[in-house]
Amino acid sequence: MKIKAVLLDLDGTLIDSVPLIMTSDNAAIKKFGFKVTHQRLRELSLLHSRDIAYRLMDSSKQVFDLFEFVDFRRKLFVKLIKKHKAKNLWFKGSKEFIKESSKRFPLGVVTGSRHLFVDEVFDKKTKRHIKFIITSDDVDHKKPDVEPLALALKKLRLKREEVVFIGDSIQDGLMCQRLGVKFIAKITGISTENQLRKFDPIFVAKDFREVINFLNLFW
Fold first, then answer.
1. Is 83 exposed, middle or buried (0-12, 13-18, 19+ CB in 10 A)?
2. Angle of helix 49-60 versus helix 18-31 axis, rounded to 10
3. Which residues, at least 6 apart from 171, have a Cβ–Cβ distance to it below 8 Å?
4. Are 118 and 135 contacting, i.e. CB atoms less than 8 angstroms apart?
5. Are both 121 and 61 inside the same structural domain?
6. Domain span holding position 40
7. 6 phi and psi, to 5 degrees?
8. CA 71, CA 12: separation in Å to the nearest integer?
């Protein structure tokens, strides 16, 4: 296996933001008069604010102010990110992985988050090691569509077999499977190990130390 570049997801992979996502989603859901189970909340938290609102509308046949829902959820999430930014928002080893890996290969981030959130997360020191960041604002069709990943390959000028993608969700796995890109599953985010194994990852890791040990076999 030849690897010429590494692509990474953000939420649940590089940063421990899934609890913050679920908190903001749950608060928005409750504010608009709905109740969901914990499992249902995890499923909805894979989606963007607008899509969550539509799911609630479709299931309840109730119409409410979509823009108010989205605005409330986004503002709360940004507030939570700022609050936790200095309290280990980044997973242990994430920044070290970025720094060391960037010396060997170009790195790119492909995330379902928006620029609004990404800009709150990255400091200049870490960001300079990243060749590019593709957010949902940069594409017409977000994950699990292949467009974000295809755009990353175009930026890298590499073939799909020359790249590995590290992610934590079934959306990441499905996107990689659809485009034929090698997938490393990191079980620190929204999806379970059993869910991620359905997408035939080349490796399953609990942390970046394990990822590095695996990738060292091919570097």
1. exposed
2. 40
3. 46, 112, 143, 144
4. yes
5. no
6. 18-84
7. -125, 130
8. 22
When divided into structural domains, the chain yields a total of 2
Those residues whose C-beta lies under 8 Å from the C-beta of residue 12, and which sit 6 or more positions away, are 18, 167, 168, 169, 186, 188, 189, 190
CA distance 41 to 35: 9
Q: For residue 81, give the nearest of 128, 123, 47 by alpha carbon.
A: 123
**Torsion 184-203-198-24 (CA) sign:** negative
pTM of the prediction?
0.93
**Do 35 and 94 reside in the same domain of the chain?**
no
DSSP-derived letter for residue 124 is H
pLDDT per position as a tens digit, 19-69: 999 999 999 999 999 999 999 999 999 888 999 999 999 999 999 999 999
Computed on alpha carbons and rounded to an integer, the radius of gyration of the chain in Å comes to 17
Quick: pLDDT tens for 95-135: 999 999 999 999 999 999 999 999 999 999 999 999 999 99
Query: For residues 173 and 119, what is the distance between their CA atoms, to the nearest angstrom?
Result: 25
Q: Quick one: 60 and 130 in the same domain?
A: no
Q: What values do phi and psi take at 58, rounded to 5?
A: -65, -40
